[in-house]
Specification:
alpha/beta, Rossmann fold, Dehydroquinate synthase-like, alpha domain, 14 helices, globular, binds zinc ion, ADH_Fe/GldA, metal-binding, Glycerol_DH, oxidoreductase, EC 1.1.1.1
Length: about 350
Protein backbone atom coordinates (compact mmCIF):
# COMPACT_ATOMS: atom_id res chain seq x y z
CA UNK A 1 0.00 0.00 0.00
CA UNK A 2 1.17 3.53 -0.78
CA UNK A 3 0.35 5.87 2.08
CA UNK A 4 1.67 9.39 2.50
CA UNK A 5 0.68 11.44 5.52
CA UNK A 6 1.47 15.03 4.58
CA UNK A 7 -0.52 17.43 2.37
CA UNK A 8 1.89 20.39 2.46
CA UNK A 9 5.49 20.79 3.53
CA UNK A 10 6.82 24.31 3.95
CA UNK A 11 10.55 24.68 4.61
CA UNK A 12 11.31 28.38 4.50
CA UNK A 13 12.93 31.21 6.40
CA UNK A 14 9.89 32.31 8.35
CA UNK A 15 7.48 29.41 7.82
CA UNK A 16 6.04 29.75 11.33
CA UNK A 17 4.59 33.17 10.54
CA UNK A 18 1.94 31.46 8.40
CA UNK A 19 0.61 29.37 11.28
CA UNK A 20 -2.28 31.68 12.36
CA UNK A 21 -3.53 31.89 8.77
CA UNK A 22 -3.39 28.09 8.47
CA UNK A 23 -5.43 27.64 11.63
CA UNK A 24 -8.05 30.22 10.61
CA UNK A 25 -11.13 30.20 12.83
CA UNK A 26 -10.59 26.69 14.11
CA UNK A 27 -9.95 25.89 17.74
CA UNK A 28 -6.33 24.80 17.93
CA UNK A 29 -4.44 23.07 20.73
CA UNK A 30 -0.67 22.95 20.86
CA UNK A 31 1.09 19.86 22.15
CA UNK A 32 4.34 21.28 23.49
CA UNK A 33 7.60 19.86 24.75
CA UNK A 34 10.16 21.68 26.85
CA UNK A 35 13.03 23.42 25.10
CA UNK A 36 11.80 23.16 21.50
CA UNK A 37 8.58 24.98 22.31
CA UNK A 38 10.24 27.90 24.09
CA UNK A 39 12.66 28.30 21.19
CA UNK A 40 9.75 28.30 18.76
CA UNK A 41 8.01 30.98 20.83
CA UNK A 42 11.17 33.08 20.76
CA UNK A 43 11.21 32.80 16.97
CA UNK A 44 7.50 33.45 16.58
CA UNK A 45 5.99 34.98 19.78
CA UNK A 46 2.39 34.69 18.55
CA UNK A 47 2.65 30.94 19.06
CA UNK A 48 2.32 31.56 22.81
CA UNK A 49 -1.20 32.96 22.28
CA UNK A 50 -2.50 29.52 21.39
CA UNK A 51 -3.74 27.24 24.19
CA UNK A 52 -1.33 24.42 24.85
CA UNK A 53 -0.90 21.19 26.75
CA UNK A 54 2.39 19.72 27.93
CA UNK A 55 3.83 16.47 26.61
CA UNK A 56 5.29 14.32 29.37
CA UNK A 57 8.11 12.88 27.28
CA UNK A 58 7.21 9.37 26.08
CA UNK A 59 5.00 8.26 23.21
CA UNK A 60 3.29 5.65 25.41
CA UNK A 61 -0.23 4.19 25.41
CA UNK A 62 -0.80 5.94 28.76
CA UNK A 63 0.21 9.35 27.37
CA UNK A 64 -1.99 8.91 24.29
CA UNK A 65 -4.95 8.04 26.53
CA UNK A 66 -4.35 11.07 28.75
CA UNK A 67 -4.17 13.48 25.82
CA UNK A 68 -7.22 11.93 24.19
CA UNK A 69 -9.22 13.82 26.81
CA UNK A 70 -8.65 16.99 24.76
CA UNK A 71 -10.56 17.49 21.51
CA UNK A 72 -9.58 20.57 19.50
CA UNK A 73 -10.50 21.18 15.84
CA UNK A 74 -6.83 20.95 14.93
CA UNK A 75 -3.77 19.71 16.84
CA UNK A 76 -0.46 21.56 16.55
CA UNK A 77 2.60 19.48 17.44
CA UNK A 78 5.64 21.57 18.38
CA UNK A 79 8.59 19.39 19.30
CA UNK A 80 10.72 16.36 18.51
CA UNK A 81 10.00 12.86 17.21
CA UNK A 82 8.27 11.32 20.21
CA UNK A 83 6.01 14.32 20.64
CA UNK A 84 5.10 14.27 16.95
CA UNK A 85 4.44 10.51 17.08
CA UNK A 86 2.10 11.03 20.02
CA UNK A 87 0.22 13.85 18.28
CA UNK A 88 -0.22 11.73 15.13
CA UNK A 89 -1.65 8.84 17.13
CA UNK A 90 -4.19 11.14 18.83
CA UNK A 91 -5.09 13.07 15.67
CA UNK A 92 -5.68 9.81 13.77
CA UNK A 93 -7.86 8.31 16.49
CA UNK A 94 -9.91 11.52 16.78
CA UNK A 95 -10.09 12.07 12.99
CA UNK A 96 -8.75 15.57 13.59
CA UNK A 97 -6.11 17.18 11.34
CA UNK A 98 -2.64 17.97 12.56
CA UNK A 99 -0.06 20.67 11.86
CA UNK A 100 3.52 19.74 12.73
CA UNK A 101 6.30 22.14 13.69
CA UNK A 102 9.49 20.09 14.07
CA UNK A 103 11.99 21.65 16.47
CA UNK A 104 14.78 19.14 15.76
CA UNK A 105 16.27 17.87 12.51
CA UNK A 106 16.52 14.35 13.86
CA UNK A 107 13.86 12.14 12.28
CA UNK A 108 11.12 11.77 9.72
CA UNK A 109 8.28 11.61 12.28
CA UNK A 110 6.70 14.68 10.66
CA UNK A 111 6.25 12.74 7.44
CA UNK A 112 5.28 9.20 8.35
CA UNK A 113 1.86 7.67 8.97
CA UNK A 114 3.05 5.72 11.99
CA UNK A 115 4.01 6.07 15.64
CA UNK A 116 6.68 4.26 17.59
CA UNK A 117 5.19 3.28 20.95
CA UNK A 118 7.35 3.03 24.08
CA UNK A 119 6.67 2.09 27.69
CA UNK A 120 6.45 4.99 30.14
CA UNK A 121 10.04 4.12 31.09
CA UNK A 122 11.18 4.55 27.49
CA UNK A 123 11.62 0.96 26.25
CA UNK A 124 10.51 0.26 22.69
CA UNK A 125 7.28 -1.78 22.38
CA UNK A 126 6.02 -1.61 18.78
CA UNK A 127 5.10 0.68 15.94
CA UNK A 128 1.53 1.38 14.82
CA UNK A 129 0.69 2.34 11.23
CA UNK A 130 -2.51 4.31 10.54
CA UNK A 131 -3.97 6.93 8.20
CA UNK A 132 -3.32 10.40 9.60
CA UNK A 133 -3.95 13.77 7.98
CA UNK A 134 -0.99 16.08 8.51
CA UNK A 135 -2.22 19.32 6.93
CA UNK A 136 1.12 20.99 6.91
CA UNK A 137 4.64 20.54 8.14
CA UNK A 138 6.13 23.88 9.10
CA UNK A 139 9.93 23.70 8.92
CA UNK A 140 11.08 27.15 10.00
CA UNK A 141 14.69 27.78 9.08
CA UNK A 142 15.26 30.20 11.99
CA UNK A 143 14.24 27.49 14.43
CA UNK A 144 16.06 24.59 12.79
CA UNK A 145 19.43 26.21 12.17
CA UNK A 146 19.78 26.83 15.93
CA UNK A 147 18.59 23.35 16.92
CA UNK A 148 20.96 20.87 18.65
CA UNK A 149 23.67 19.73 16.26
CA UNK A 150 24.00 16.20 17.74
CA UNK A 151 20.38 15.50 16.91
CA UNK A 152 20.92 16.68 13.35
CA UNK A 153 23.91 14.37 12.98
CA UNK A 154 21.99 11.41 14.39
CA UNK A 155 19.09 12.31 12.09
CA UNK A 156 21.35 12.14 9.06
CA UNK A 157 22.56 8.67 10.09
CA UNK A 158 18.96 7.50 10.53
CA UNK A 159 18.16 8.88 7.07
CA UNK A 160 21.19 7.25 5.42
CA UNK A 161 19.93 4.02 7.02
CA UNK A 162 16.82 4.20 4.81
CA UNK A 163 18.93 3.15 1.86
CA UNK A 164 20.74 0.24 3.49
CA UNK A 165 17.66 -1.12 5.21
CA UNK A 166 15.45 -0.80 2.12
CA UNK A 167 18.14 -2.58 0.10
CA UNK A 168 18.38 -5.32 2.74
CA UNK A 169 14.64 -5.99 2.43
CA UNK A 170 13.97 -5.44 -1.28
CA UNK A 171 17.28 -5.39 -3.14
CA UNK A 172 18.19 -2.54 -5.47
CA UNK A 173 15.21 -2.67 -7.83
CA UNK A 174 11.62 -3.88 -7.76
CA UNK A 175 8.73 -4.38 -10.20
CA UNK A 176 6.36 -3.16 -7.50
CA UNK A 177 5.88 0.56 -8.27
CA UNK A 178 5.56 1.59 -4.63
CA UNK A 179 8.68 -0.28 -3.56
CA UNK A 180 10.63 0.98 -6.59
CA UNK A 181 9.66 4.58 -5.74
CA UNK A 182 10.69 3.97 -2.13
CA UNK A 183 14.01 2.53 -3.28
CA UNK A 184 14.72 5.53 -5.53
CA UNK A 185 14.12 7.95 -2.68
CA UNK A 186 16.10 5.74 -0.32
CA UNK A 187 19.06 5.81 -2.72
CA UNK A 188 18.94 9.61 -2.57
CA UNK A 189 19.04 9.33 1.24
CA UNK A 190 22.08 7.05 1.06
CA UNK A 191 23.97 9.67 -0.94
CA UNK A 192 23.79 12.14 1.94
CA UNK A 193 27.02 10.47 3.11
CA UNK A 194 28.83 12.40 0.38
CA UNK A 195 27.91 15.81 1.80
CA UNK A 196 29.61 17.68 4.61
CA UNK A 197 27.62 17.81 7.84
CA UNK A 198 30.10 19.71 10.01
CA UNK A 199 28.57 21.93 12.66
CA UNK A 200 29.77 25.13 11.03
CA UNK A 201 28.02 24.09 7.79
CA UNK A 202 24.84 23.28 9.67
CA UNK A 203 24.80 26.69 11.36
CA UNK A 204 25.46 28.44 8.06
CA UNK A 205 22.47 26.59 6.59
CA UNK A 206 23.50 26.76 2.95
CA UNK A 207 22.07 24.89 -0.04
CA UNK A 208 23.54 21.49 0.89
CA UNK A 209 22.23 21.69 4.44
CA UNK A 210 18.76 22.64 3.20
CA UNK A 211 18.94 19.63 0.88
CA UNK A 212 19.94 17.36 3.78
CA UNK A 213 17.28 18.76 6.12
CA UNK A 214 14.60 18.10 3.50
CA UNK A 215 15.75 14.50 3.32
CA UNK A 216 15.81 14.02 7.09
CA UNK A 217 12.40 15.60 7.68
CA UNK A 218 10.48 14.69 4.53
CA UNK A 219 12.04 12.47 1.86
CA UNK A 220 13.19 9.88 4.39
CA UNK A 221 9.62 9.58 5.63
CA UNK A 222 8.24 9.20 2.12
CA UNK A 223 10.47 6.13 1.59
CA UNK A 224 8.32 3.95 3.85
CA UNK A 225 5.16 5.70 2.65
CA UNK A 226 5.81 4.43 -0.87
CA UNK A 227 7.44 1.08 -0.23
CA UNK A 228 5.51 0.15 2.92
CA UNK A 229 6.95 -3.02 4.49
CA UNK A 230 9.25 -3.32 1.45
CA UNK A 231 11.28 -0.26 2.41
CA UNK A 232 10.91 0.10 6.15
CA UNK A 233 13.29 -0.83 8.96
CA UNK A 234 15.49 -3.93 8.90
CA UNK A 235 18.37 -5.37 10.92
CA UNK A 236 19.92 -2.00 11.81
CA UNK A 237 16.78 -0.94 13.68
CA UNK A 238 16.47 -4.39 15.26
CA UNK A 239 20.00 -3.89 16.61
CA UNK A 240 18.98 -0.42 17.79
CA UNK A 241 15.96 -1.78 19.62
CA UNK A 242 18.04 -4.52 21.24
CA UNK A 243 20.74 -2.03 22.29
CA UNK A 244 18.09 0.24 23.82
CA UNK A 245 17.37 -2.43 26.43
CA UNK A 246 20.81 -1.76 27.94
CA UNK A 247 20.98 1.28 30.22
CA UNK A 248 24.54 2.00 29.11
CA UNK A 249 23.28 2.97 25.65
CA UNK A 250 20.63 5.45 26.80
CA UNK A 251 22.80 8.54 26.43
CA UNK A 252 23.39 7.72 22.76
CA UNK A 253 20.80 9.07 20.35
CA UNK A 254 18.52 6.90 18.21
CA UNK A 255 20.49 7.53 15.02
CA UNK A 256 23.82 6.73 16.72
CA UNK A 257 22.58 3.26 17.65
CA UNK A 258 21.04 2.74 14.23
CA UNK A 259 24.43 3.60 12.69
CA UNK A 260 26.10 0.86 14.70
CA UNK A 261 23.25 -1.46 13.65
CA UNK A 262 23.99 -0.63 10.02
CA UNK A 263 27.56 -1.85 10.38
CA UNK A 264 26.26 -5.12 11.89
CA UNK A 265 23.64 -5.49 9.15
CA UNK A 266 26.05 -4.87 6.29
CA UNK A 267 28.55 -7.32 7.77
CA UNK A 268 25.83 -9.95 7.99
CA UNK A 269 25.28 -9.72 4.24
CA UNK A 270 29.03 -9.37 3.60
CA UNK A 271 28.44 -6.03 1.88
CA UNK A 272 31.33 -4.16 0.28
CA UNK A 273 29.95 -0.96 1.76
CA UNK A 274 30.78 -1.96 5.33
CA UNK A 275 34.14 -0.20 5.38
CA UNK A 276 32.83 2.99 3.76
CA UNK A 277 30.00 3.05 6.26
CA UNK A 278 32.26 2.49 9.24
CA UNK A 279 34.74 5.14 8.12
CA UNK A 280 31.95 7.62 7.60
CA UNK A 281 30.47 6.96 11.04
CA UNK A 282 33.90 7.33 12.65
CA UNK A 283 34.52 10.56 10.77
CA UNK A 284 31.39 12.12 12.27
CA UNK A 285 32.04 10.78 15.78
CA UNK A 286 29.32 8.11 15.86
CA UNK A 287 29.96 4.84 17.76
CA UNK A 288 31.21 1.86 15.77
CA UNK A 289 32.17 -0.46 18.64
CA UNK A 290 30.23 -2.10 21.44
CA UNK A 291 32.73 -0.74 23.95
CA UNK A 292 31.73 2.80 22.99
CA UNK A 293 28.12 1.80 23.60
CA UNK A 294 29.05 0.49 27.02
CA UNK A 295 28.27 -3.16 26.19
CA UNK A 296 30.66 -5.62 27.82
CA UNK A 297 32.00 -8.81 26.33
CA UNK A 298 29.90 -10.93 28.72
CA UNK A 299 26.70 -9.20 27.53
CA UNK A 300 27.08 -10.22 23.91
CA UNK A 301 25.07 -13.46 24.22
CA UNK A 302 22.16 -11.52 25.66
CA UNK A 303 22.46 -8.95 22.86
CA UNK A 304 22.40 -11.70 20.21
CA UNK A 305 19.22 -13.17 21.72
CA UNK A 306 17.55 -9.75 21.83
CA UNK A 307 18.48 -8.95 18.22
CA UNK A 308 17.07 -12.29 17.04
CA UNK A 309 13.86 -11.58 18.97
CA UNK A 310 13.58 -8.14 17.40
CA UNK A 311 14.06 -9.41 13.85
CA UNK A 312 11.31 -11.96 14.42
CA UNK A 313 8.91 -9.34 15.80
CA UNK A 314 9.48 -7.06 12.80
CA UNK A 315 8.89 -9.92 10.43
CA UNK A 316 11.43 -9.23 7.70
CA UNK A 317 13.81 -11.73 6.16
CA UNK A 318 15.51 -13.41 9.07
CA UNK A 319 19.11 -14.53 9.13
CA UNK A 320 19.41 -17.99 10.55
CA UNK A 321 22.86 -17.71 11.91
CA UNK A 322 23.21 -16.61 15.52
CA UNK A 323 26.83 -17.80 15.57
CA UNK A 324 27.75 -15.50 12.73
CA UNK A 325 25.98 -12.59 14.37
CA UNK A 326 27.84 -13.31 17.59
CA UNK A 327 31.15 -13.42 15.76
CA UNK A 328 30.44 -10.04 14.16
CA UNK A 329 29.52 -8.50 17.51
CA UNK A 330 32.63 -9.91 19.20
CA UNK A 331 34.65 -8.35 16.44
CA UNK A 332 32.93 -5.01 16.93
CA UNK A 333 33.46 -5.24 20.69
CA UNK A 334 37.20 -5.69 20.51
CA UNK A 335 37.86 -3.38 17.60
CA UNK A 336 38.44 -0.38 19.81
CA UNK A 337 41.29 -2.08 21.66
CA UNK A 338 43.24 -3.01 18.56
ZN1 LIG B 1 15.14 5.27 12.89
Amino acid sequence: MIRQAVLEYDHSKDALENLPARIGKREALVLRGESGYSKAVRVSPRLADLPSVRFTGECSDEEVERLNGYRPDVWIAVGGGKLIDTAKRIAASQSVPLIVVPTLVSNCAAFTPLSVIYTEEGSYIRYDTFPVVIERVIADERLLRDSPYDYFKAGVIDTVAKWYEARYISGTTSRDAGIQSGLSLAAQCGKLMDLSIREQDFRRYGTDIRYIVDHVLAIGGAVGGFGDAGTRVAVAHAVHNALSRFDSTHHWLHGDKVGFGLVVQERLVASEDTVILKNWLQSIGAPTSLAQLGIRFDQIDELVTLIREETKIQGFRDFDDSERLKEILINLQEMVYK
